[in-house]
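REQUEST FORM: STRUCTURE PREDICTION
Request ID: SP-0412
Submitted by: Lab K.M.
Chain count: 1
Length (residues): 224
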Amino acid sequence: MERKQATLNSFPIPELTTGFNIRGRFIGQFKPLLSLLFICYAPVALIWLKIIPFEHRFYALFFALAGLAYFCFHRRYRLEELGFRIDTLKSAMALNLLFCAIGGMALYISYKAGLLIPKNHNYYFSHTYLIYIFFLGPVQEIIFRGILFTETKRIKSGSNRMFLWISTLSFCFLHVIYRHPQILVIAFISGLIWGTIFIKRPNIWGVALSHSFLGALGIVLGLI
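STATUS: Completed
RESULT:
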């Protein structure tokens, strides 16, 4: 009688299979967040490496926004998840207006003291500060506070601290294209404060207003 040779396939290994499944699910829950960060980081890295000319940065960012729009459609976010809510509007506005006033004064005083050196940026669009106030500023907050916060919350092991650091560092990295060390410091501090406010009072309207005003002031002063 012919004896069959035993192989590993002949014996079930439930522990190993279960381990792979758990590991796969754990890694899988981070895939949307990693995809989102890639969409945000890729155009910034290409501009910083001068593969895309700095003067074409707005076009590159608009292409990135198209990718983000598709990503958001695929993830099916609810407006309330992103911070479009009215129950926290009053308190969020109060905190953001306070930071807006303090941040604006600090920015102007630092500029007058010569701590912030303006740079001559060639803008392709006239009245760029208006585009920043009504479009770029709010869009950045939707991305770096609203969407990132939602994606972090959808991860089982996600936490407010995890969101705060990912959001702050990602927002800071966005500003490396200006090659201005002081701007990186301002972006880091601002991102940290906006992230903290958003955690305490999740409302996109407040942080968008604060970001738009301070960003427009930075453009007027020639900093960004």
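NOTES: The chain has a mean pLDDT of 84.
Reviewed by: T.R.
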